Amino acid sequence: MSEKTLYDKLWDDHVVHTEDDGASLIYIDRQLIHEVTSPQAFESLRLAGRKPWNTQRNLAVADHNVPTTNRKQKIPDPIARLQVETLDKNCAEFGITEFDMDDVRQGIVHVMGPEQGATLPGMTIVCGDSHTSTHGASGALAFGIGTSEVELALATQCLTQKKSKNFLIKVNGSVGAGITAKDIVLAIIGEIGTAGGTGYTIEFAGTAITDLSMEGRMTVCNMAIEAGARAGLVAVDEITIDYYRGRPYSPKGEHWLMAEREWQKLHSDDGAVFDKVVELNAAEIKPQVTWGTSPEMVVAIDAKVPNPADELDSVKQQGMINALKYMGLEFNQPINEIKIDKVFIGSCTNSRIEDLRAAASIVKGKKKADSVSLAMIVPGSGLVKQQAEKEGLDKIFIDAGFEWREPGCSMCLAMNADKLLAGERCASTSNRNFEGRQGYGGRTHLVSPAMAAAAGIAGHFVDIREWV
Amino acid sequence: MEAFKTVTAKVMPLDRANVDTDAIIPKQFLKSIRRAGFGPYLFDEWRYEDIGEPEMDCSNRPLKKDFVLNNPDYQGAKILLTRENFGCGSSREHAPWALDDYGFRAVIAPSFADIFFNNCFKNGILPIVLSAEVVDSLFKDVAAGYQLVINLGAQTIVTPQGEVIQFDVDAARKYRLYNGLDDIALTLLQADKIKAYEAERAKRAPWLFV
Ligand code: SF4
Q1: Distance between CA A324 and CA A294 in Å, rounded?
Q2: Which of A259, A300, A360, A440 is the most exposed, fewest CB within 10 Å of its CB?
Q3: Is B208 domain-assigned?
Q4: Confidence (pTM)
């Protein structure tokens, strides 16, 4: 069969060698490196007396552990500081480019990569971080790896993999006003479950997807991993190509023209066969709010917290009971009556300029509810921050009583000082609502930036469709 | 990496689905730049009453009595029995490092998250996928002192009753794990092919090779 899916094309383009059992050696075009999953990889390389295969293929940034306030001082937590300094030291020793904490290009690795044009269409991209799936939004094959593979990719520029299966998720039609990429992807996960994509690479298609900006597509692909798929993809179109034009690491001159021609081919052929297809109707997607401790525990804003008694699968039922207990919720409670203590707008899911604009348009001229103790905005990168400040978004947030912070992962995973306290409830634009994810005992509800902003104003979840 | 041939060991039942890597090893421990020493913090939030911090001495921390890791019946277990989608969430290799450091050599579940599954093989841990029914029956049988014999060569698990359960494992992964081989050395054997690929690709996509 000659018709190929986008994934088939990207895969075939990168196979160096295939073993009899189907395991292939895959060439890696770009590795992104951050402080948390790399120190042990560099240490092993050093101990084995090995060198990186090609230093140019790697780009590093510290994001997980960096403080979001007062960057002038050293990182107060000595263990975190050592980890960030270890990255600086390793990059200097091995000759790898790093955007350090004072560099305006510093930011969350998955925001920085596309922003710099360091991750491009048609590439294979890896990073020791599961949300590497984000970069698939540009028609690249991008997936997270563990530290052993970080080391392997450093040393050989290759990884051994078996090809996964092809999964097409089509979101047909157009979404209603106020419905964002985040709602689309949460609705998808609600539909297929957190293991629905395990073993597959998901291609997101349909007009509701192609209508999205690159930022929106990144939000969707970012959460492919939350649906169990290591990689998510969106085909290349004019929006993709426009996005990459003129970025610092994008091809230049003659190379740009060549690249553009090649990138135009990065879509699934008509008649290409997928192993699994799921279709959704965009018009039916409402603003989504998670109520539990797994991204699949998600409902629409006008729904109620579900009743475990209605779940027939006993393992799932127990999971729901545990989740309700952890989240401090009762079943049948209307979602829009859930009160929140904190707001976090940030993370590699939703910290790009478009996300900040959406949140700012909601809070403009309003005030944070007194019952909300902290509402923080953490831009995805120094450049996003700069752009937002140019547009005056920082002032809108500050006037509304929101905090305007320095870029990094921040309360997405609470490795730095930004954390929920036990029992605190947060409207968060991040991607994981696992127990303790945003701080020990903290309770996370995943929502879109507009929904999070509105919850910060109202003090509880509100239906954003009534505000736009 | 420690080679995996045959493991005869006690089984610990962790009766939960969707156990994520944040639960296996909470993020504060990821600040470490070392590979070892994570065992005392395995399942930290479920295991201790207080909040764990990196490099903390765990010997006097208050235990959550009802968590299975603290049940005296299962001390010394090297096989973890659990439910579907084990290891979902972040790609942190600290999760298999913590399991390994604690002493686990194998995890049995109906399904695993992809990245975690892969990371296990790189760290001498054998993740075994069995059908939900078989996992369920093991959960019913498991009790204090219950032991299984896992033979990677034969791809079998033998129960105390003498029942033999066959399992699947990818041939290449099996070979590496069985022999405790280093991925980098194996891959560098293909260095000529990698260079040839680069030369050929540089013609098709020269912008990647500037
Ligand atoms: S923002 Fe959150 S999900 Fe994204 S890379 Fe950072 S910690 Fe991971």
Answers
A1: 11
A2: A300
A3: no
A4: 0.90
Comparing CB atoms, the residue among B83, B115, B183 nearest residue A130 is B115
The answer to whether position B164 is within a domain reads yes
Residue B62 CA to ligand 1 center (angstroms) comes to 31
* Helices A353-363 and A214-222, axial angle in degrees (round to 10): 100
Q: Residue B81: what pLDDT?
A: 98
C-alpha angle with apex B4: B1 to B8, nearest 5 degrees?
A: 135
- Beta carbon pairs, A and B, within 8 Å: 178
Residue A156's DSSP bridge partners are: none
A437 lines ligand 1 (CB under 6 A): no
CA distance A131 to A222: 5
Is the CB of residue B82 less than 8 Å from the CB of residue B108?
Answer: yes
A148 and B27: CB-CB below 8 Å? no
Q: Which of A146, A195, A435 sits opposite B111 (nearest CB)?
A: A195
Domain at B52, CATH number: 3.20.19.10
Both tokens of B170, joined, read 């990818």
Residue B34 pLDDT class (50, 70, 90 cuts): confident
Tokens at residue A355, please? 């996300």
CB contact under 8 A, A36 and B84: no
The helices-and-strands tally (H runs, E runs) of chain A is 15, 19
**Of A42, A83, A251, whose CA–CA distance to B32 is shortest?**
A83
Per-residue model confidence as pLDDT tens digits over B166-181:
999 999 899 999 998 8
In a domain, B1, yes or no: no
Q: Pick the residue whose CA is nearest to atom 4 on ligand 1.
A: A348
For A151-197, where are the E strands, in sequence order? 158-161, 165-172
Among all chains, which residue has been given the structure tokens 């954390």?
A: A419
The residue range of the domain holding B13 is 6-179
Compute the distance from residue B174 Cα to the ligand 1 centre, in Å.
32
Q: Is residue B91 part of a domain?
A: yes
Percent of chain B with pLDDT over 90: 82
C-alpha closest to that of A289 among A464, A116, A409, A125: A464
- At A218, give phi and psi (nearest 5°): -65, -40
Of residues A145, A147, A195, A187, the one with CA closest to residue A170? A187
Q: Are strands A425-428 and A403-404 parallel, antiparallel or unpaired?
A: unpaired
Would you say the CB of residue A108 lies under 6 angstroms from ligand 1? yes
Query: What angle do the packed helices A382-390 and A109-116 form, to 10 degrees?
Result: 70
Helices (H), B36-154: 44-47, 94-102, 114-122, 132-141
Q: Which of A38, A66, A108 to mutate to test the pocket of ligand 1 (most atoms within 8 A of CB)?
A: A108
Find chain B residues with C-beta within 8 A of A200's C-beta: none
Neighbours of B40 (CB within 10 A): 18
How many domains, in total, are found in chain B? Answer: 1
* pLDDT tens-digit map of A363-380: 999 999 999 999 999 999
